[in-house]
Design brief:
Blueprint: E1 2-8, E2 14-17, E3 26-28, E4 31-34, E5 39-41, E6 45-56, E7 59-66, H1 68-74, H2 78-86, H3 92-96, E8 102-103
Antiparallel strand pairs: 1-6, 1-8, 2-6, 3-4, 4-5, 6-7
Bound molecules: zinc ion.
Zinc ion binds at residues 18, 20-21, 23, 34, 36-37.
Length: 106
C-alpha cells in the first residue's frame, strides 16, 4: 500500500500541447505556436505534468505524472483544473484532496 504524501504542482501542473502532434506549444499573445508543425492556433490540449511523492512502509519516491494518469488521480481533466486556476478559484484544493490517499500507480 502506497500513500501520496506530496504533490508538486505549485509552479505548474500542466503543459499546453499541440492538438496534432502533442508536442509542447509556445504561448504567444493568447495564441499557441507549434514549432514542430509550424502552425499558430487558437486551440490546444491541456496535458497534466507534475510530480508527486508516494511513500510506503519502506520509503518514498517521486513519481512523474503525465497525461491521462493525472486525470485518473485527480478525477478531473487538466483543462478543468486550469479553468479553475484561470478563474481565480482554489485549484490547489484539487491536488490537496488527493494527498494521503492510497495510490495504485506506484
Ligand atoms: Zn504540432
Amino acid at each position: 500500500m502506497a500513500l501520496v504524501t506530496k504533490i508538486a504542482a505549485e509552479k505548474s501542473f500542466y503543459y499546453l500541447a499541440c492538438k496534432q502532434c502533442k508536442r509542447k506549444l509556445a504561448e504567444e499573445a493568447g495564441k499557441f505556436y507549434c514549432k514542430n508543425c509550424n502552425v499558430t492556433s487558437d486551440a490546444c490540449n491541456v496535458v497534466y505534468m507534475f510530480a508527486m511523492r508516494v511513500e510506503d512502509g519502506t520509503g518514498g519516491m517521486w513519481l512523474h505524472v503525465f497525461g491521462d494518469l493525472g486525470t485518473e488521480i485527480l478525477n478531473k481533466t487538466a483543462e478543468d483544473v486550469k479553468k479553475i486556476k484561470d478563474a481565480g478559484g482554489d485549484w490547489q484544493e484539487c491536488f490537496e484532496q488527493q494527498k494521503n490517499k492510497a495510490s495504485n500507480s506506484a
